[in-house]
Amino acid sequence: MAAAESYPDDLKYHPEHDWARIDGDEATLGVTWFAQDALGELVHYEAPEVGSSISKDASYGEVESVKAVSDIVAPLSGEVLEVNARAVEEPEIVNEDPYGDGWLIRIRMSDAVEVDALMDAEAYKAHVAEQ
Fold this sequence. Notes:
- The protein is α+β, with helices and mostly antiparallel strands.
- It has one domain: CATH 2.40.50.100.
- A 6-stranded antiparallel β-sheet has the order 1-2-3-9-8-5.
- A hairpin with a 3-residue loop joins strand 6 and strand 7.
């Protein structure tokens, strides 16, 4: 079952509908409720390799739904520390819990200043309203 629409206040948001939960110099990344809702039921998640580098505003993986294949855009740059194996094995968890068990990767940020360019929950809600 899909999660109810929400945009937690403790996250930072990218205009391409990705979120970041910041913890010191690390960040956990995932796709927002809006993204998973627009995509529909996810059937595949193509994750980056642990140890690889991702760049802000660039694709770091793909999600495939019953509707389409979409790139996942990195809200921040860094080194991939961990991939959520559950999201790879059970991509529907992203639909069920996009901010909890449905996270995608954890990174060590290479440039913490990039966080300042992301939106807070209120700004992101306004952005979604314009979609």
